[in-house]
Design a protein that fits this description.
heterodimer; A: twelve-stranded mixed β-sheet; two-stranded antiparallel ribbon; 10 helices; B: alpha/beta; nine-stranded mixed β-sheet
Chain lengths: ~260, ~200
């Protein structure tokens, strides 16, 4: 029996954790090592770290920091952020990561997904795709933090990525990021219905109920950023994660396996 | 409690294992050469990747013979993790090299009748089934799950060597044992509380 994974997605900027709303205004929330330890204690199923500064400034992944962070994680770890070459993927693997997340590089050259999968195996490659809706309600895949419209419908893009060997799809909703109002269920449904690989939505989760909705819509696992980061009254930051009993109850009776 | 030696032979990141051992209050250290292995009181053999690659790395460092020595002659507790478990057998369909031969049997590729839904490698959290009452599983009460990622699995020659299974199309050996030599196909160091419980039990052997 496979369980529904609930996955915190944390953003790194210059070595610190940040959170964004609609992909903008990164706010510093704390130290990554500390965050991992907290998620260890809370027994998170899996964790994703995306280095948005490595991505933005085309920097090399900080392998030293990565090794250190990965060694602290007592759960499977996925890393991404500006990964664009096969040699980077090899090094990231050697640092002990279970999965590498690629976004822009896959969009600019879908063949890169194929090369990446040949190094890491399909199951080690997660393709992250950013989806934004225009004023007419039409969704498209974007890159560069929602600035560049690839003018490809999410469904077509998802199919292409699967074909090129992606092991998993992380579907980011730019519009809903940080809003905590719920996932983009129609997009999850349509992609999950069209591909055989796991579809994991991120962007919009605000409650456990949203997780359930996403799974019912076809998501294989659910991911969230803001939902797990809680701002206290004195601007203190709390990292949170649901307890296993609550999660078991939430996902029981799905009839899935 | 004895110190746990974690073998570092360049084939995986042993950091998580060390950190988890530290977290459960176990004294642990990385070892890398034959002398250190010979002095080990308890040994963990981690590993990810391909069979031949792992065996070659052990041979290059002269470690294959000493691992057999400490396991068979000194009978120290030994725990192979993931590829480390697979290296304990006689050989794998994945490669050409002979394994350590500490557990009779061979490794084969994970495969199943045309199911459609299941993929190789087996990757993700899975529940164990048919767990024997073994000191390694002391204290596990509820449904026990661990994180797996593997494309090959061990088929021990002796059924009794299997002390836990995992269902993935077919029942696969999730944990094996011969004397005090244990192998686990899953990653305790990536399985938070379940891994910690297991490593605590190993430390207490």
């Amino acid at each position: 029996m496979q369980l529904t994974r609930v996955i915190p997605v944390l953003l790194l900027e210059n070595g610190g954790l940040v959170k964004t709303v609609r992909f903008k205004n990164p706010q510093y929330i704390g130290d990554p090592i500390n965050a991992i330890r907290i998620f260890n204690d809370k027994e998170a199923d899996e964790i994703v770290f995306l280095d948005i500064s490595a991505d933005r400034h085309e920097r090399e992944p900080d392998l030293g920091m990565l090794s250190e962070i990965v060694s602290e994680a007592f759960m499977p770890f996925a890393y991404g952020g500006g990964v664009r070459r096969v040699d980077q993927i090899e090094k990231i693997y050697r640092a002990g990561v279970e999965k590498v997340v690629i976004n822009r590089a896959a969009a600019l050259d879908p063949e890169f997904v194929k090369s990446a999968a040949s190094v890491a195996g399909s199951s080690g490659i997660v393709v992250s795709m950013d989806v934004k809706t225009n004023w007419l309600g039409k969704r498209s895949v974007f890159i560069n933090n929602g600035k560049t419209n690839l003018k490809i419908p999410p469904l077509d893009y998802a199919r292409l990525m699967e074909e090129k060997g992606a092991g998993e799809l992380l579907v980011n909703s730019i519009d809903l990021d940080g809003t905590m109002k719920g996932y983009d269920l129609p997009v999850i449904s349509s992609i999950a219905g069209a591909v055989g690989i796991p579809v994991v939505p991120v962007g919009g989760a605000g409650s456990m109920r949203h997780f359930r909705q996403a799974v019912d819509a076809g998501a294989s696992a659910v991911a969230a950023g803001s939902m797990f980061v809680f701002h206290g009254r004195q601007k203190g930051v709390l990292l949170t994660y649901p307890g296993s009993k609550d999660l078991n109850e939430l996902f029981s009776g799905q009839g899935m396996d | 409690m004895a110190r746990i030696s974690v073998l570092d032979y360049g084939v995986s990141n042993s950091g998580s294992i060390l950190n988890m051992l530290k977290k459960i209050g176990s004294e642990a250290a990385l070892v890398g050469n034959a002398e250190e292995v010979l002095e080990a009181e308890k040994l963990i053999l981690p590993g990810v990747g391909a069979f031949d690659n792992g065996m070659q790395a052990l041979k290059n460092a002269g470690l294959d013979a000493v691992i057999r020595e400490v396991a068979l002659e000194k009978s120290i507790p030994l725990l192979g993790i993931c590829l480390g478990m697979q290296l304990l057998c006689e050989g794998s369909a994945e490669g050409e090299t002979s394994g350590l031969g500490l557990i009779p049997g061979r490794c084969e590729r994970v495969s199943f009748p045309k199911d459609g839904n299941l993929k190789v490698p087996h990757m993700g959290w899975s529940f164990l089934s048919n767990m024997s009452s073994d000191p390694l599983f002391e204290g596990f009460e509820e449904d026990v799950r661990f994180y797996f990622v593997h494309a090959y699995h061990m088929r021990p020659a002796n059924r009794d060597a299997v002390i836990a299974e995992v269902e993935y199309g077919l029942p696969l050996a999730a944990a094996v044992k011969s004397g005090l030599t244990y192998g686990v196909q899953f990653h305790p160091e990536k399985s938070h509380r379940f891994g910690m419980r297991l490593l605590k039990n190993f430390a207490a052997l």
